[in-house]
Amino acid sequence: MTVYECSASMRSFLKDLPKCEHHLHLEGSLEPDLLYPLAQRNNITLPEQFPKTVQELEERYTRFEDLQDFLNFYYIGCEVLLQEEDFFDLAWAYFKRSAAQGLKHAEVFFDPQSHTSRGVAIETVVSGFQKACVKALQELHISSKLIMCLLRHTPIEECKATLESSRVLFETGQLHALGLDSAEKPFPPELFTECYATAKEFHPDVKLTAHAGEEGDSTYVENALDLLNVTRIDHGVNSAQDPELMARLARENIMLTMCPLSNVKLQVVKDVSELPFDKFLDAGISFSLNSDDPAYFGGYILDNYVAVQTRFNWDMQTWKKVVKQTIEGSWCDAKRKNELHLLLDAVMEKYGNTL
Ligand code: HPA
Ligand SMILES: [Zn+2]
């Protein structure tokens, strides 16, 4: 297993940076040591061939062949979540772990269809997550937003029904944005044009994002922009294939929510060093660094920052630039952004030119 290490002082600087996460699937933060107790609490029988112990499961998580191989485990994991308190426990565990890594603001995904398909009401899911968000703000000073994702492998009629059932949650601002995840290549953005238009009709403030260019090529990114009217792209690694698209991303200030450890684990790239961060910086493209499904990919937000540092060896000013653009690309209000910028200034001052 690859170990990413940087100097203790650099790690301390990276930990102190006020980090915002834009690409985190709450269901992907289900650690094996919570999965089995929840299965027991809810009397869920896991499939016969599913690993029987935390250790066996952790071992299996070290070798995913591709996105689909991972998703097969991810959806089985979802099955242990039933009650409001399960969703609360899951999200609260994520916030606590990430607080210890210097997380200050999180815009987090969830997949209602992986729960409603098992008879769990969307309100139960959202209510559990919301309670954790409130506690995270009060006790950990982490602000957050919920992004509802549609599962692109499910029938479009099911996606439309899910959207309809979430209408009030969007209208009342309990849900902040719409996203799109699951198997990318067979289910391109154009299938979801109507769903995205509907979400925007719920409320003009609803934000739109979509996974694109993780396993799909750069045309998936282009089509998500043109047909879904997203203002953010989740992953978008493959945008680097097309110089014209790169120029457009910079011009239109589209943020890419990059996930270094995920990309290695799902074999999008062989090593973090292959990711086009320097190309994006040179082209003036905004990106953030995120953990995606930390329980499955072996690292939370700071672990991703450290992995990038071990391969790119950025100086403090480059990190300042990356964190600044991450704050700017967040969907929190101007007051919160200002607080985050002040935290960043304080960290830069604390470390001076020492690194
Ligand atoms: O990394 C991902 N990609 C696509 N779908 C997902 N659903 C959870 N995680 C992912
Ligand atoms: Zn993702």
Automatic annotation (TrEMBL):
> Where this protein primarily resides, as one coarse class?
cytoplasm
Reactions accelerated catalytically: adenine + H2O + H(+) = hypoxanthine + NH4(+)
Q: Which cofactor does it need?
A: Zn(2+)
* Record domain Adenosine deaminase: where: 18-342
Pfam families linked to this entry: A_deaminase
Q: Sorted alphabetically, which PROSITE patterns does this protein's record hold?
A: A_DEAMINASE
Q: Which BP terms in the Gene Ontology apply to this protein?
A: adenine catabolic process; hypoxanthine salvage; nucleotide metabolic process; purine ribonucleoside monophosphate biosynthetic process
Which CDD domains does this chain map to? ADA (cd01320)
Q: Which InterPro entries match?
A: A/AMP_deam_AS, A_deaminase_dom, ADE, Ado/ade_deaminase, Metal_Hydrolase
Q: What Gene3D superfamilies does this protein's entry cite? A: Metal-dependent hydrolases
Residues reported to bind substrate: D293
Reply yes or no: does the keyword Nucleus apply: yes
Query: Which keywords does this chain's UniProt record carry?
Result: Cytoplasm, Hydrolase, Metal-binding, Nucleotide metabolism, Nucleus, Zinc
Quote the subcellular location field of this record: Cytoplasm; Nucleus
* E.C. number(s) listed in UniProt: 3.5.4.2
- Cofactor: record remark: Binds 1 zinc ion per subunit.
- Residues that coordinate or bind Zn(2+): H23, H25, H211, D292
MF-aspect GO terms: adenine deaminase activity; zinc ion binding
Site annotated as Important for catalytic activity: where? Answer: H235
Where along the chain is the active site annotated?
Answer: E214 (proton donor)
Show the stretches that span the lipid bilayer: none
Top-level class of the enzyme under EC nomenclature: hydrolase
GO cellular component terms listed in the entry, alphabetical order: cytosol; nucleus
NCBIfam families (alphabetical): aden_deam
The family assignment reads: Belongs to the metallo-dependent hydrolases superfamily. Adenosine and AMP deaminases family. Adenine deaminase type 2 subfamily.
Q: State the name under which the record lists this protein.
A: Adenine deaminase
According to its UniProt entry, this protein's organism is Lachancea dasiensis
Q: Which gene encodes it?
A: AAH1
